[in-house]
Amino acid sequence: MAVQCHQGCTLHGVCNEELGRCDCPRTRAGAACEVQLTGEPLKQRCKSMGFSGISSCTSEKNTCPNNCLRRGTCVAGFCLCQPGFFGNDCGLSMVPAGPNGTRTPVVLSDRGYTPRAAGPRVYIYDLPPELTTWRNDDRLDRWTTRHFLEMLTATGARVGDPAAADWFYLPVRLRSSSDGHVLRRALEYVQAAQPWFNATGGKDHFVLAVGDMGRLESERGPLSANVTFVSHWGLYRSKAEQLQSPHWRASHRNATDIVLPVYLTLRKLQKFGILGSRHHPKFATVAPPDVRERNGPLFWFAGRVCQDSSPPRTDVWPNCPKAMGYSAMTRQAVYFHHWNRTGFAVLRGDKQYAKHMLTAKFCFGPMGGGHGQRQFQAALAGCVPVVIGDGVLEAWEPYLDWNDFGVRVAEADIPRLHTILGAIGPEEYARKVRSLRCAAQHMAFSSVTGAYMGESGRFDAFETLLAVLAARARHPDTPPELLRQADPPPAGGLRCVGAGDLAACPRPWA
């Protein structure tokens, strides 16, 4: 039911009528936002939100989620909603529902919005702005969280009534270890303000953690123990003792967490030549002649080997003694054993990076200081990815098997890498390439970047995440490794094997 805010709230602020909370722009304070902040008080608030000064804090360059859905004005990143609307994008309003006319929150009530039939039904917590829209996103290098927040409405996965939800999403930005306190505060807030977290102990709640170390760098205290972390880092077995580094402790929890592909911006896709992907149905006829054939290296990698960018040694192991933990020593080992092997290009830099990724047969996608992104570059470009990381799940595992379209190599087998790749015959390689055409769609964020493989976007990374969440909601007690069998999709789902035509790529789950 609707709850009134302090009188006068909507003159300068937004009334969350679901909770009776008055939210203010960064420049205002008070029970009804009646206090205009200036000088030192404003400077201190801006500093606490990550801004260097008042000018950047109040700049209109700070953008708003969904551009306030044309129901409000964007004020330096804060949606000042029209009276009657609320939410960090002004997407909510209270309307009568049910036979007794109880008012409940509804998404886009005046625009005929209908939640998607396939689910999931996701309730987005409207957290206080100091935990969300007040924070500085100007220098944010990973926009996955913002894009996902906006896509929940665009795809019909969002619901306004928490009683109708399968999942509860906490829209906090988790990019680095310094953001962990924000998650803790958000969990404490929802635990105190609404009943949904306490009802399940957080088992139907999730967050996106896009930092290098996932759950490990974002978790503060026991409140998030049952929360699902959607992150890029799938380390489930500790390497801390082996590598003598605490940040290689296990982070991913197989029973709850989900590994998401890394979002590559359009700028990166263009820089790495991925916009000319081999997956595109017209690649064979419109690609430049020098990249049409796979006549490049058998195995290719270009990038940093030692963490400090110093040249790795080839005569002694360890060959990067100043940073033993970087990449879990996999980049270093590949370089040490194969730096001068015929058919292998293991380089610290490559002026023909884009060309070689399109023409090589196998591309190494290693870890870095935590998760890597080169395996996704390779998959999207059409180069069969080689992944090496004991105890580390890749994106969408165990729902998808990377050996169907790539090559997973044990760390102990790095000296034999040339033998392993050499044993993959033409038929098996062709099968992997066909499977990769399908798998790549699940790694792409086509709904944000647009299509570059001739794909529709119906199977992109965001849609795949929603499909996994929907299937888990239908089978809450099923272990992740058994979910495909418990919730079989049409036409093979994420198996991808033999899916040579992008248009025929199976939907993950119905």
Give structural notes.
The protein has helices at residues 9-12, 39-48, 54-57, 144-154, 180-193, 196-200, 215-218, 240-243, 266-271, 283-286, 289-292, 330-338, 353-359, 374-381, 417-422, 426-443, 446-449, 461-474, 483-486; strands at 14-16, 21-23, 28-29, 35-36, 72-75, 78-81, 92-97, 102-107, 122-124, 158-159, 167-169, 205-209, 228-231, 258-259, 299-302, 344-347, 362-364, 384-388, 407-409. It is globular, with a radius of gyration of 24 Å. Helices cover 27% and strands 13% of the residues. The two termini are 34 Å apart. Strand 3 (28-29) and strand 4 (35-36) form a beta hairpin. With 510 residues, the chain is an alpha/beta fold. It is built from 19 helices and 19 strands. The strands form six sheets. It has a six-stranded parallel sheet. Strands 16-15-17-18-19 form a five-stranded parallel sheet, with helices on both faces. Strands 1-2 form a two-stranded antiparallel ribbon.
Describe what is shown at a glance:
This protein has 510 residues and is an alpha/beta fold. The protein has 19 helices and 19 strands.
Comma- or semicolon-separated keywords:
single chain, 510 residues, alpha/beta, 5-stranded parallel β-sheet
Topology:
Elements: H1 9-12, E1 14-16, E2 21-23, E3 28-29, E4 35-36, H2 39-48, H3 54-57, E5 72-75, E6 78-81, E7 92-97, E8 102-107, E9 122-124, H4 144-154, E10 158-159, E11 167-169, H5 180-193, H6 196-200, E12 205-209, H7 215-218, E13 228-231, H8 240-243, E14 258-259, H9 266-271, H10 283-286, H11 289-292, E15 299-302, H12 330-338, E16 344-347, H13 353-359, E17 362-364, H14 374-381, E18 384-388, E19 407-409, H15 417-422, H16 426-443, H17 446-449, H18 461-474, H19 483-486
Parallel strand pairs: 9-10, 9-11, 11-12, 12-13, 13-14, 15-16, 15-17, 17-18, 18-19
Antiparallel strand pairs: 1-2, 3-4, 5-6, 7-8
